[in-house]
Amino acid sequence: MDKRDYHIVSFSGGKDSTAMLLKMLELGMQIDCILFCDTGLEFPDMYEHIAAVEKYINRKVTVVKAKEDYEYLMLEKPVKRKKEAQLTLRYGFQPKGYGWAGPRMRWCTEKLKSQPREQFLRGLRKEYNIIEYVGLAADEKYRLERAVNQRQNHRHPLVDWGMTEADCLRYCYEKGFTWNGLYNYFSRVSCWCCPLQSLKDLRKLYEHFPILWAKLKEWDGRTWRDFKTDYSIEKLEKRFDLEKEYIRDERPVNNRVFFDALRERINE
Q1: What is the CATH number of domain 4-187?
Q2: What is the pLDDT of residues 20-34, one digit of tens each?
Q3: Rounded to an integer, what distance in angstroms lies between the CA atom of residue 3 and that of residue 177?
Q4: What is the DSSP code (8-state) at residue 1?
Q5: In contact, 124 and 130? CB cutoff 8 Å
Q6: 125, 46 contact by CB (below 8 A)
Q7: Burial label, 31 (beta-carbon count in 10 A; 0-12, 13-18, 19+)
Q8: What is the C-alpha separation between 144 and 150, in angstroms, rounded?
Q9: This prediction's pTM
Q10: Are strands 4-10 and 128-133 parallel, antiparallel or unpaired?
Q11: Strand ranges across the sheet with 128-133
Q12: Dihedrals φ, ψ of 154, to 5°?
């Protein structure tokens, strides 16, 4: 017996998935479920945006979420490790929690997104043929090639429509969605505490989102793993503050003189 198709929009709340969702509804395309994987780490403005989208389309977004939250997983969860003895020798104690994520250890994506999502879809696959719509823009070639290789039942309407990231943002703005200005600061909006984000984005977070930065600093003081290879949150603060001083005094930033001064500031 053939399974009936079940159409799911993968909805992050960002500009691309929002544009895709609104355009699909505008074109009368079938949507059986709008799925949002809530990590608990979105900007407060993003949660407001998702609520505004629900009101605008007069439909509820289906939310899936891990049973254990990020703070517990990062700082408290007992974790079995292959190199426990080495870590104990290095830190003088057995670290608790997963610590900050890294390029080769993106545990948060697995625990907070992939696993809850797959658990939700597993039940549906028993009854339906799942077709998932993913908001990859037409100018995200590298992500599209990777996605095509990984998922056969994924559809990419933005690519079919030729909508670039800039097109998506403009389309959303025209519909009245502004995310309270998040895209004035960031080109891509995801988990606000991600250690893999650029220094540019971290600088914006420090300058414009002091409450979130304070939480970031608190977590950094409680975990065993460095936030970035070269920087703790405290060191990043010192760098950003020194940059402001140099810019104010019209002195060049990011040359040898600056980094010598930064090294002295950090060692004070």
Answers
A1: 3.40.50.620
A2: 999 999 999 999 999
A3: 37
A4: -
A5: yes
A6: no
A7: middle
A8: 10
A9: 0.90
A10: parallel
A11: 62-64, 33-37, 4-10, 128-133, 154-155
A12: -90, 145
**Residue 180, Ramachandran bin (φ over 0: left; ψ between -120 and 50: alpha; else beta):** left
Q: Is the dihedral of CA 68, 71, 73, 76 positive or negative?
A: negative
What kind and span of H or E run contains 132? Answer: strand 128-133
- Least Cα distance to 17 among 55, 83, 61, 58 occurs for 61
Contact assessment for residue 191 and residue 43, using Cβ atoms and an 8 Å cutoff: no
Token pair for 33: 């479920």
Give residue-wise pLDDT tens across range 202-231: 999 999 999 999 999 999 999 988 899 889
The tokens describing 242, both together, are 């020194």
Q: Is the dihedral of CA 187, 193, 198, 202 positive or negative?
A: positive
CB 7 within 8 A of CB 33: yes
* Tokens linked to 98: 């997963």
Which structure tokens are listed for 79? Answer: 């974790």
The CATH 3.40.50.620 portion of the chain extends over 4-187
Q: What is the DSSP letter of 105?
A: B
Which residue in 42, 30, 15 sits closest to 155, CA to CA?
30
Three-state DSSP class for 65?
Answer: coil
How many Å separate Cα 76 from the centre of its chain? Answer: 22
Q: What are φ and ψ of residue 133, in 5° steps? A: -100, 120
Q: Which residues of the chain have pLDDT under 50?
A: none
Sole residue written with tokens 């936030």: 227
